[in-house]
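for the writeup, i need someone to sanity check this before i put it in the appendix. the sequnce is what the collaborator sent (i think, or maybe the updated version? ugh). structure was predicted straight from it, no edits. if anything looks off just tell me and ill rerun, i have time this weekend
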Amino acid sequence: MDVQTIYQKTIIFAASKHLEINQTITDSDLPYVIHLSNVAMEILIASHNTEGFDLNFATQIALLHDTLEDTNTTFEELKLEFGIEIAEGVSALTKNDNLPKEERMLDSLDRISKQKKEIWAVKLADRITNLQKPPKSWDNLKRIKYREEAKIILEKLNGSNQYLENRLRSKIEEYEQYLD
């Protein structure tokens, strides 16, 4: 199947799941599907700068990456609709709510590191996309912690995708402007 068909099928599924809960981008009225499409855009561009990159797989993961974490979608539902490899990849990107908050990111990064490099790329692309102007509701401490998390992501996923690593490094530097 071509990437355009895969993209359309996947974004419709993901958008409908996020719409069911009326999820928007934090502190805005913008539909959450904008975030998903921005992550997928990072993946599409990265694929042109990365040898041996499975664009079809990575595009699906990018568009679905928050469905288990943020919506009522189940692992089984993802598995039935998109296959076990996609479901496992999305699961690795999903923080475990049963762990203490301070352990969730490292746990997820550990699970991501056991997956294909395209999963790593989606995590990098997700943080790149999220390092835009922070939500108004975030205080300076939250912004600092978010930047520090980005540095940990960059360190733990080092060697996975040079193009996205460079993009994330640049976004971390740009994010300094939002810190007091």
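The first helix runs from residue 3 to 20. The chain has a mean pLDDT of 96.
thx in advance!!
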